[in-house]
Amino acid sequence: MIQGLKDKVVIVTGAGHGIGRAYSRGFADAGARVAVTDIDGPAAEKVASEISGKAEGRAISARVDVADEASTKQMAKTVLDRFGRIDILVNNAAIFATIPMNRGGIETIDPAEWDRMMAVNLKGLFFCCRAVLPTMRAQKSGKIVNIASGTVLSGSLGRIHYVTSKAGVIGFTRTLAREVGGDNIQVNCIAPGSTLSEDNPTEEILRMRQAPVQGRSLKRVQKPEDLVGAMLFLCSPLSDFMTGQTVSIDGGQNFL
Ligand SMILES: NC(=O)c1ccc[n+]([C@@H]2O[C@H](COP(=O)([O-])OP(=O)(O)OC[C@H]3O[C@@H](n4cnc5c(N)ncnc54)[C@H](O)[C@@H]3O)[C@@H](O)[C@H]2O)c1
Q: What are the distances in angstroms from CA 172 to CA 28, 32, 167, 175, 177?
C-alpha cells in the first residue's frame, strides 16, 4: 500500500460515478479522509456511505456543481468545517459519460453545449482551485491533480468541444504549478486513455472501449482501477518534487 496518505483530507469532484468513484475508494483504502462530491448528490452520498461502511468517519459527501463558484466555495467550507484542512484536490468532474455529450463533428455541436462544456470542464477547475487555494497557501502545502484526456495527445474524430476543453486543462496545470509552487503546492495532471467507466455499459459502449486495445502496448480494456495507482502517487509525498506534469495512463498508447 502507498504510504503518506493516512488522514490526509482529499476532495474528489465528479466522484459519484466512474473513475472519480474509483479514486475515492483508493484514497480511503490508503487511509485518507475523502469528500466525495458530485452534481449528482445521491450518487455522491452512496459512494461516501459505502466508504464509511468500511471505515467510519472516513468520508463525507456533498452535492457540488463545479461550474458554480458559490457551490465550490461552499464545498471548501464544508470540508474545512468537517476536517479542519484540505490537503488534496482532484479535479475530476467533467461532462463525459454520466452527463452525455455530442460525439459528432464540428457542424453538429450546439454552441450552448460548447459553452456548458467549457463551463464545467475548464471553468470548473478555475473555481475549485480558487476555493481551496487560500487554505493550501496558509498550510504551505497542497496537491492538486487535474484530469485531461488521451484524446488531446492523439486527436479525436468528433467531440471537438470536449477535446479542446481537455487541452486547456494541460495549460492550466502548467501555469498554476508556476503560480503556487512558492507555497509548496504541487499541481499535476493525468491524461487517461479510453476507460470503461460506465455503470451499465451497453454492447455499443463495450465495443467502443474495446476499439483502442489494438493501438495499445498493453492489449486489454482500461478500467477505472488502472488510474488509481498513478493518482495516489501524485498525491503522496513520493511525488513532492514533481509539478506541472501530465502523466499519460493508457496502457502505452500515447508517449509524451
Ligand atoms: N472514461 C474515459 O474514457 C476517460 C478518458 C479520458 C479522460 N476521462 C476523464 O476522466 C474523468 C472521469 O470520467 P468518467 O469516465 O468517470 O466519466 P463520468 O461521466 O462517469 O464522470 C464524471 C463525473 O462528473 C460529474 N459531473 C458532471 N458535471 C458536473 C458538475 N457540473 N459538477 C460536479 N460534477 C459534475 C458526473 O456526474 C460524473 O459523476 C473526466 O474528467 C473525464 O473527462 C475519462
A: 27, 26, 9, 5, 8
Long-range CB contacts (within 8 A, 24+) of 172-181? 172/122, 172/125, 172/126, 172/146, 173/146, 173/148, 173/244, 173/245, 173/246, 174/244, 176/129, 176/144, 177/243, 177/244, 178/244, 180/133, 180/136, 180/137, 180/142, 181/243
pTM over 0.85: yes
Provide the residue type at 159 as one letter. R
Q: Which CATH architecture has domain 9-249?
A: 3-Layer(aba) Sandwich (3.40)
Whole-angstrom Cα distance, residue 154 to residue 159?
A: 13
pLDDT tens for residues 160-189?
999 999 999 999 999 999 999 999 999 999
* Ligand 1 first shell, C-beta below 6 A: 13-14, 16-20, 38-40, 64-67, 92-99, 120, 147, 149-150, 192, 194-195, 197
Which residue type occupies 38?
D
DSSP type of residue 241:
T
21 CA closest ligand 1 atom index: 16
